[in-house]
């Protein structure tokens, strides 16, 4: 599992997976997407159909150093 600051967007390209975010499970197939707070534990839980590929875009918080 992964856990980090920021927001994350996933877009499923190939294969099928059950993706975990916190205590929630999401079945995903090509064309599905998720947008979530990455502070919660998250990651692939069950690899249903391989090969599996997804696009992950992470937006980290901007530092307020001045």
Secondary structure topology:
Blueprint: E1 7-21, E2 24-28, E3 33-37, E4 42-59
Antiparallel strand pairs: 1-2, 1-3, 1-4
Descriptive labels:
mainly beta, Jelly Rolls, 66 residues, 4-stranded antiparallel sheet
Explain what the structure shows.
The protein has 66 residues and is mainly β. It has one domain: Jelly Rolls. Helices cover 0% and strands 65% of the residues. The protein contains no helices and four strands. Strands 1, 2, 3 and 4 form a four-stranded antiparallel β-sheet that branches. It is elongated. It starts with 6 loop residues before the first strand and ends in a 7-residue tail after the last strand. 8% of the residues are buried.
Strand content: over 45%
- Give me the CATH superfamily: Jelly Rolls
Number of helices: 0
Looking at the structure, the CATH topology is Jelly Rolls
In angstroms, what is the radius of gyration? Answer: 13 Å
What form results from the Cα inertia axes?
A: elongated
Mean pLDDT: 95
Brief description of this entry?
With 66 residues, the protein is mainly β. It contains no helices and four strands.
